[in-house]
Amino acid sequence: MISKNTICLWYDKDALEAAQFYARTFPDSAVGRVLRAPGDYPSGTQGDVLTVEFTVAGVACLGLNGGTAFKHNEAFSFQIATDDQAETDRLWHAIVGNGGQESACGWCKDKWGLSWQITPRVLTEAIADPDPAAAKRAFEAMMTMGKIDIAAIEAARRG
Q: Using one digit for the tens of pLDDT, what is the confidence trace for 42-88?
């Protein structure tokens, strides 16, 4: 059964491949039902994978193979909270190393153009520090990074 609220993600034709990658990469992720087109449609033919139900870190998603009409952009991203540098590195490298690309401040894109924020909990805590100077130092350190370096954030926070 589809969740009452599901994020629908548009893919050219690779929704199943993307869902399988997310399921291998992120804990609490899985591929569910795959529906094939019952007839021809503008970007595919009868029998092609039309939709894929999947979860990413517990969030219900539906991948739609809709063709080339729309592309992902940074207006939508998954923000994944990480607990340590090893988890941060593993997820970052899984995305970037599988045809993705690096961006700034913990952001990267997967090979399908979907944006991800790989965000250590330490970073979130640091920029919310009740000491405005500590929060500013951590924030300024983050602004110079691609993948977040937890040790550097902690050092900036301490001053």
A: 989 999 999 999 999 999 999 999 999 999 999 999 999 999 999 99
Each residue of 104-147: pLDDT tens digit?
999 999 999 999 999 999 999 999 999 999 999 999 999 999 99
Q: Could you tell me how far CA 23 lies from the centroid of its own chain?
A: 12
| CATH class of the domain at 72-159 | alpha beta
Rounded to an integer, what distance in angstroms lies between the CA atom of residue 67 and that of residue 90?
31
The answer regarding whether domain 1-68 maps to CATH 2.30.29.170 reads no
Bridge partners for 10 per DSSP: 64
Q: What is the pTM of this model?
A: 0.94
Identical fold between 1-68 and 72-159: yes
The edge-to-edge listing of strands for the beta sheet with 59-65 is: 7-11, 59-65, 49-56, 30-36
Where on the phi/psi map is residue 7: left (φ > 0), alpha (ψ -120 to 50), or beta? beta
- Domain ranges for the chain, please list them: 1-68, 72-159
Cα–Cα distance, 20 to 112 (Å, whole number): 13
Facing residues of 118 across strands?
Answer: 80
